[in-house]
Design goal:
The chain is an alpha+beta fold and 327 residues long. The chain is built from six helices and 22 strands. The longest helix has 22 residues. The protein is elongated and about 90 Å long. Belongs to the immunoglobulin superfamily. Contactin family.
Length: 327
């Protein structure tokens, strides 16, 4: 009885080995006994016909061909699972899948006076086969061979000696392999700089006591935003804003209402770049009082011109300010 049981078991095992060796003709029968049909490796085990196929910038479409032999465990990774579980493809690199972002490029503000003469737009992607990379600026593909300053290391796009005129714009990373392609979000590359004021001497502004006056800053070229302040007579004596004095952070102009004798002096506009922290000073503008009783250039009147219509979203509040100069 024991001998008969062993014979039946041997014949069953032999039948299984014959089935697997038929399915995998290139592998010896002894190796087929060691194979395990895993959920994470079924596609690579049974050939390209069982691999998941999808193609979409957002990994949205999946189509799977059924295997040509019976008995295969039909388990496949969907693109959505790959996207949300990076451990899946870390465990078994034999699984083929389309590109998945690990890191997308970020916005960059590059100081033109930086000691570092390179800009690196980072893009890291996983995929099997290994994806290839292309870059777009303002929606147009960049020809990496067109400029010696361009280089590509893995997926990272590097610009040597970057120039605002040539290189500022919106960048996107495009990664693709045989299973699909993905396009990154836009990353903005802009340049931070602060020019110098014109060295031209500024004329004195003469105003009667009690009148209002506007001192123009006329800032130099800059990017991005700058912060305005005013120095009174000498550094570091700054003009303090109060009920009579106001500094516009839009234009940099200094507004003084009801000028007093204590306001007479020299005024210098100071601008500071918010990124580089660079600062530059304007030439001084002298402010003097008139004593001839003649109505001067800075007569206390305000002319304000608003557009005929102001567009605003429904439900929002529109605020319009006016700073009055004069008595």
């Amino acid at each position: 009885m024991a001998s008969s049981w062993k014979l039946v078991l041997f014949l069953s095992v032999s039948g299984c080995l014959s089935e697997y060796s038929g399915a995998l003709p290139d592998l010896p029968t002894s190796y087929a006994t060691l194979l395990r049909i895993k959920k994470s490796s079924s596609s690579s085990l049974f050939g390209s016909k069982t691999r998941p196929r999808y193609s979409s910038p957002l990994l949205g479409t999946l189509s799977v061909s059924s295997p040509n032999w019976q008995g295969a465990a039909q388990h496949y990774y969907s693109p959505i699972n790959l996207y949300h579980s990076s451990d899946a493809f870390k465990q078994d690199e034999s699984v083929d899948y389309g590109p998945v972002f690990v890191q997308e490029p970020d916005d960059i503000i590059f100081p033109t006076d930086s000691d570092e003469k390179k800009v690196a737009l980072n893009c890291e992607v996983r995929g099997n086969p290994v994806p290839n990379f292309r870059w777009l600026r303002n929606g147009t593909e960049i020809d990496l061979e067109s400029d010696y300053r361009y280089s590509l290391i893995d997926g990272t796009f590097i610009i040597s000696n970057p120039s605002e005129a040539k290189d500022s714009g919106h960048y996107q990373c495009l990664a693709a392999n045989t299973f699909g392609s993905i396009l990154s979000r836009e990353a903005i590359l802009q340049f931070a700089y602060l020019g110098n004021f014109s060295g031209r001497t500024r004329s004195a502004v003469s105003v009667r006591e009690g009148q209002g006056v506007v001192l123009m800053c006329s800032p130099p070229p800059h990017s991005p935003e700058i912060i305005y302040s005013w120095v009174f007579n000498e550094f570091p004596s700054f003009v303090a804003e109060d009920s009579r004095r106001f500094i516009s952070q839009e234009t940099g102009n200094l507004y003084i209402s009801k000028v007093q004798t204590s306001d007479v002096g020299s005024y210098i506009c100071l601008v500071k770049n918010t990124v580089t922290n660079a600062r530059v000073l304007s030439p001084p503008t002298p402010l003097t009082l008139r004593n001839d009783g003649v109505m001067g250039e800075y007569e206390p009147k305000i002319e304000v011109h608003f557009p005929f219509t102001v567009t605003a979203a429904k439900g929002t509040t529109v605020k319009m300010e006016c700073f009055a100069l004069g008595k």
